[in-house]
Amino acid sequence: METVTIKGHIWFQTETGLRIGEGRAKLLEQIDLSGSISEAARQLKIPYRRAWGMVREMNNNAKEPLVIKEVGGKDGGRSILTKEGKKIVALFKKVDQCFKNFSKDESYRLSRGQE
Fold this sequence. Notes:
By secondary structure, this protein is α+β, with helices and mostly antiparallel strands. Helix content is 56%, strand content 12%. It has one domain (20-110): Orthogonal Bundle (Arc Repressor Mutant, subunit A), CATH 1.10.10. The chain has helices at 22-34, 37-44, 48-61, 83-111, and strands at residues 11-13, 19-21, 67-70, 78-81. A hairpin with a 5-residue loop joins strand 1 and strand 2 (19-21). The radius of gyration is 18 Å and the shape is elongated.
């Protein structure tokens, strides 16, 4: 039998309609690292408008905001990933790792003809 490799993309959706996949999780992580939606967008090579739209949609569909904007100061404002945002990123990483483990295990099993 040929070698079989299971591939796919994973995302989850909450009861409030919040959808998180790899792209959104990476955006949240970059916002946490940079403190800026525009810098996160640059790092991920996506338009700022798209990144801002994703943040707005996630915040609107989450029980609590995932990203908040802090205004002012001598260096200007910044964006902060909230505690809830950090939980969501951690949950996505956990779900994604489970999927990767499943894919690897099932690919091996199917390739060996153990259906």
